[in-house]
Amino acid sequence: MMKNKAITTFINNPHNAKNIINDLIDQYSWGKVAVVSEEIPLISALTVLDNIVLYKCYAKRLYISKVENEVLEFLNRYNEPNIIYLHKGQLNKYQQFIAKLARATIHNPEIIVINMPVDYLGIENFNLFVDILKESNTDLSNIMLIENDRFSNLYDDLDINKVGINEWLTHVTKILNLK
Amino acid sequence: MFMHFIKLVENLGRWTISTILFFTGITFFTIKIFIAGLFSKAFLNPVSVTFILRQINFIGVELIKTTTIVAMVLGLAIVGTLSNILINFGATTSIGVVLTGVLVKIAAPFITGLLFIFRAASAIFIDIALMKNNNDFKALKSMDIDEYQMVFFPRVIASIISMFILSSYFILLSIIGSFTLLSFQLNTTLSVVGQQVISALQISDVVSFIFQVFFIGLIVAIIPMYTAMEQKRSQLWIIVSMNKSMLRLFYMFILIVFIGQLI
């Protein structure tokens, strides 16, 4: 059985991952499964703030300005508070990644799927990201990372529980069906 | 000769089919937007309201300066010319009727509509075409957000509201302009000009004004969005579709103004 470690799953098959992501998105709402992926871009017509809080404000009927401080706090921890009013075209890859992370984590989904090269972050920021996740309600065992072998070399000091896709999917289905 | 005739019939048939398809498609598109916007949980959702206000600011508020200048210049020119003609013919009592007819029924919807097309339609088209090209609709779908509620509906409502406010503003400025001019020519007051305009106002003028303003506001948002959504995901197609969108818009605009005059 799976243990509640820092990052639970590591799948070394991007093609497989894409299909799994699409299936999860089709089956479950963003409130349950949030995805950080190249395939789900930031919306270019909106600012970073709007992108991050769009789902949360829409689902909970909140005004965007009400959650602005929460977003600023998140971006501050990555030393990127200035991107809050920028648009996608004005961001570099790292800043886009931060914005997507914020968009996925801000509403505390049950599962976070990350299918992007995490080395954009660097080891220091990745540890920070794990810390931020620990503070959120999302169970760390429910973070799915899809990466190549570079990741394990970069972050070999992290507690990563590598499991096969079938085991992970059983785990995910169990969590989502329980709640 | 016969071949030319066949080709002509073919072209006519193709044009008829594409026109029918366009009108059917755009009607369903419009109905879907209003159903999604008015009869869903998104109606009066704070995010939706914020987006409507932003769109009003984006397409309407930025046009106030231009409308002010155009209304002052064209309003003065139209009123000046008309009042001169009426004074020469000794028909000064008809000034109110003529002013109302020209301003409310023709000048305000037509001139504001043209300005609105130049400013808003192109901006809305580019906005939606880029969203489609950048795969933004997939992002919205992933987040369980209906594009009809959060992207299309706010633009349609903002467009109709902006068009209504700008046209009314045009009429107001033109009346003030005409008063300034008439006060020199006929030694009259603002209240007299206002009374003449109001007393000459007929229900058909108001209905015609509301009809034109509503439908011009509607098509300025709907046609660019519909055409942008029809296009394939490619930058070349954005340019081709933009021309198509502006042409469709222009023909519909002329049709609406024409029907407005028949009311």
Overall shape of chain B: globular
- Molecular shape of chain A: globular
The amount of helix of chain A comes to 40-55%
Could you tell me the radius of gyration of chain A in angstroms? 16 Å
Order of helices and strands of chain A: EHEHHHEHEHH
Contiguous helical run count of chain A: 7
Annotation keywords:
heterodimer, A: 179 residues, alpha/beta, Rossmann fold, 4-stranded parallel sheet, 47% helix, 9% strand, globular, disordered N terminus, B: 263 residues, mainly alpha, 9 helices
Topology:
The complex is a heterodimer of chains A (179) and B (263).
Chain A: E1 9-11, H1 14-27, E2 33-37, H2 48-60, H3 68-77, H4 93-105, E3 111-115, H5 122-135, E4 143-146, H6 149-154, H7 165-178
Chain B: H1 2-38, H2 46-60, H3 64-88, H4 95-133, H5 136-142, H6 147-185, H7 190-200, H8 203-230, H9 235-262
Helix pairs in contact in B: 1-6, 2-6, 3-4, 3-6, 4-6, 4-7, 4-8, 4-9, 6-7, 6-8, 8-9
What does this structure look like?
The complex is a heterodimer of chains A (179) and B (263). Chain A is of the alpha/beta class and 179 residues long. Chain A has one domain: Rossmann fold (3-Layer(aba) Sandwich), CATH 3.40.50. Chain A contains 7 helices and 4 strands; from the N terminus they run βαβαααβαβαα. A 4-stranded parallel beta sheet of chain A has the order 1-4-3-2, sandwiched between helices. In chain A, helix 2 packs parallel to helix 4. Chain A is globular. With 263 residues, chain B is an all-alpha fold. Chain B has one domain. In chain B, helix 2 crosses helix 6 and helix 4 runs antiparallel to helix 6. The radius of gyration of chain B is 22 Å and the shape is globular. The model of chain B has no long low-confidence stretch (mean pLDDT 86). The chains are: A alpha/beta (179), B mainly alpha (263). Chains A and B meet through helix 2 of A and helix 2, helix 4 and helix 5 of B.
